[in-house]
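We read letters as residues; the integers encode the fold. Take this protein.
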Amino acid sequence: MNDNIMNIRGRAHLLGDGVNTDIHCSSKYLPGRDNAYVAQHAFEQVAPGFASRFKPGDVIVAGRNFGINSSREQTVQVMRLMSAAAVVASSFGRQFFRNAINNGLPVVECDISGIAEGDAIEIDLAAGLVTVVGRGISREVPPLPREVQAILAAGGLIPFLQRHPDWKLA
């Protein structure tokens, strides 16, 4: 497995509760626009200038119900274009969570209290650990199942199945 995807280090960028897919990937940018354009404006309805502050490898940290509202995979694709390393949230919309895994974006449900904007955050997906050393935060989370780790390491479900066409759930 790709060790880099299992051990993530980046800067935290905070969003609040209930950030739905329409807020993230506003429909006002969609007509005639591609995902790269939308990525330049991601989350600006809830955090003006978010996309311009976000750097490749950074981590989105959000509150409850991140990604609720629709099953649009475009939202995950936009975050991948932003080069988000992962999303850590108190809870996720179930469709978003599955779309993230399918598209190779690590997602972790975790208590986010005490994490601040710009904190260096570390995520060990295999061990199930989220750490913010500078604040003395170390939180255990359920480790992702081996199969999910393999899908993430491959870059998503389609690349995984292309590499393992005969794979069957054990």
Notes: The mean pLDDT is 88. The two ends are 18 Å apart (CA to CA). The chain is about 30% helix and 20% strand.
